[in-house]
Amino acid sequence: MAARAIIGGGSIGGLFAAAALRRAGWEVDVFERASAELSGRGAGIVTHPALVEALESVGAGTHDLGVAVEERVAFDRQGGRVRAMEFPQIVTSWDRVHRLLRPLVPEGRYHLGRVIAGYEETGGSVIVRFEDGSREEADLVVGADGFRSAVRGQFQPAVAPTYAGYVVWRALAAEAELSEEVRASVFPAFGFFAPAGTQIIGYPIAGPENDLRPGNRRYNFVWYSPADAGKLDAMLTDATGHRHRVTIPPPLIRNEVLAQMREEAEAWLPLPFVEILEVSERPFFTPIYDHCVEVMGAGRVALAGDAACVARPHMGMGVTKAACDALALARHLGDGGDVAAGLAGYSAERVPASRLAHERARELGSYIFGSPRETNPDGRANPRLEEIMRTTAVAI
Ligand SMILES: Cc1cc2nc3c(=O)[nH]c(=O)nc-3n(C[C@H](O)[C@H](O)[C@H](O)COP(=O)(O)OP(=O)(O)OC[C@H]3O[C@@H](n4cnc5c(N)ncnc54)[C@H](O)[C@@H]3O)c2cc1C
C-alpha cells in the first residue's frame, strides 16, 4: 500500500509538495484553510531557471508562463532613465503558477475549508487534528501552511516571525489605462526607483485570465516603504477600530491609510509611478516579516515553503524556494520506506539553502534604509544602484 501524506496548505508550496510526492508514489491529500478556490490572486512573481525546471519536473509544464522582459531600467524622480542593463527574464503571476499546478491534485484529494489545528505522532503514524474536530491518519504531515504555520507552531514553537520595519505596497494597473508615454517608457522593462529610504520595482505581467496580448496586460507595482511600530499599528487598524494582528485584509485598509500612501507617493515617486498608482485597482500593503527555522523535518513532520523560512520579496525566491523544497522532499523520502531518515536528509539539504536565501534577502532589504530620503531624493545617487539592479529578483 502506498504511503500517505497530508499536506497543510493548498497554495503554491502545498501544491508543489503534493505534485512531487504523488510522482514519488505517495497517496496525497491537501487540506486548505480557505473555503473557496485560491485562484484569481494577481500579484507578480519573477521566475528563475530552477522554478521552470521544477514546473516541468512535476508535470505542470510552463505553457504561457508569463511576459518576457528584456532589460532592467532605473528611473530618476523625473522619470528619466538613470541606468539600463540587458537582463532577459520571464515574469509571471501567482495565479498562473497556481493554475498550472492545481490540476495535478485530483478532485477528492484537495479539501477546501479544512484548518489544521495540530498533530500527534504515534510512532507508526501521525494523526492530524482539524479545527472542525475531525482527524486524519498518515505516514507524514507537511506544513506548507504559510508564514504563520500552525504545523510550525507545534513543531518549532520558539520560532516567531519578527517585523522588519517596512511594508510593501502592491498594485496592479491595466496596460490599456496607462498613458502612451508610460506604456512606452516604463511598462516594458523591469523597472527600479531607488532613492535612499524607499524602493520601487515594477514589471509587466499578464492580464486577467493570463491574457498575454499587448494592450491587455497589467503593470505589477511594488513599493517598499518604511513604517515604524506606531505607523504600522495605525495601518493595521480598520475602520471599526480593530487592530489586526499581523496583516490586514485588503478591503479593510482604511481610506485614510490609502490617502496617506498616495500623498507620500506624490511627494517622493517619479511621475510615471504616481500615474501607475492612480489607475491601479485598490492598492494593498503587506508588512515584511522574517523567520527561518533550523530544522525542516523530523519524525513524521516536515515544513516547506514560507512555513519553514521566508526570503523577503526582494529576491523573488519564495515560489522557487517552495518548489525546491518540494522536489528535495520527494527525492529524500522516495516511496516512504523510512520517513524519519528521509526527513533528516531533507532538512540537512534545505535548511542551509533556505537560510542563504533568507539572509541574502534581508541584506537586500537593508539597502532601503541607511541614509535619509533627503540625501538622494531623485534616485540618481544611490551608491548601490548597480548592485540592487543586478541582484534583485535573482536566484542564488
Ligand atoms: C510582495 C510580495 C512579493 C512576492 N514576490 C515573489 C516573487 O516575485 N517570487 C516568488 O517566488 N515569491 C514571491 N513572494 C513570496 C511567495 O508569495 C511565497 O513565498 C510563495 O507563495 C510560497 O508560499 P507558501 O505556499 O509556502 O505559503 P502561502 O502562499 O502563504 O500559502 C499557505 C497556505 O496555507 C493555508 N493555511 C494557513 N494555515 C492553515 C492551516 N492551519 N490549515 C490549512 N491551511 C492553512 C493558507 O490559506 C494558504 O493557502 C512574494 C511575497 C510578497 C509578500
Automatic annotation (TrEMBL):
Tell me the SUPFAM superfamilies matching this sequence: FAD-linked reductases, C-terminal domain, FAD/NAD(P)-binding domain
Q: Which InterPro entries does the entry mention?
A: DHP_3-monooxygenase, DhpH_subs-bd, FAD/NAD-bd_sf
Tell me the ranges covered by the 2,6-dihydroxypyridine 3-monooxygenase substrate binding domain, including all copies: 163-290
In terms of NCBIfam families, this protein maps to: PRK07236.1
| Protein name (Swiss-Prot/TrEMBL) | FAD-dependent oxidoreductase
